[in-house]
Amino acid sequence: MTEQDTIDRAQAGDTAALALLLQQHYTFVRSYVLKLTMNPTLTDDIVQDTMLKSMEKLHLYNGASKFSSWLITIATRIYVDLTRRQKVEKRWQEQAIRSLRYQMEAHNEEWTDMIDSLGKLPPEQRAAILLKHYYGYTYPEIAEMLNCSEGTAKSRVFYGIEHIRKELK
Amino acid sequence: MEHKKLPETEEEWSAMLKEQWTKLDVYSEQKPVPSQTFLIGMLTEHKQRQKRALWRELSVLWLAAAVMLLGGFTLAVTDISVYVMMQLVLFVGILGGLLMRGYVMKRRRRGARHE
Question: Per CATH, the architecture of A1-111 is what?
């Protein structure tokens, strides 16, 4: 059965088909959300919210983008909304980054200055840089995902890179 | 912590950021993917919760509508001039509220676009 068949079944109300779809994309979404938030605890919450939101909004999915892109758009918007409502305090974020660093070092992965500076970026800049430089989305696609204009998406990437450059100098 | 030469071009930035962000995958990979049974349970429970919330909202709406209708009817029978006055006040209030909401939403959208 192709992914489109599973999507069709899920859109027709088949919960098992939706569960299968979500299971297939689970690692991709979690890996994206961790890079986006750089906060392991928040990652689990956002991934779960993304799964539930995708069920509520599934009827709106029209195949214009890949299903995985649609899922990470939902995850991004949940995270941006959360940060706008100032639910992620700075001190929690610092604590989360320390915890992530500890986890990585426990797996013999080196914690670099670059990762540290990525963690210090404002969330909206980090999201734009992640979508542009890691996932290779175009600016119009990023603008659509972040619900902003193309110019805003470009400036977020630009200022984000400048921020990292300054941090690392 | 290491100190590498900073990238210059967009491609170099992409390569470096990819390399750095990939390091975080070690954390994602160590966590198990939930089973389909767990996901079905989670989705079904959420669906039921949503349904219950919708029914609750609908009941509140029906109750409010019944109170409004009964109140309006009683008022119309008792004193028609007060009833007409109340209708006018309600109309102006709702119209004002809708206009205000539209204005606030437009401002918020403009703010997000020019951020």
Answer: Orthogonal Bundle (1.10)
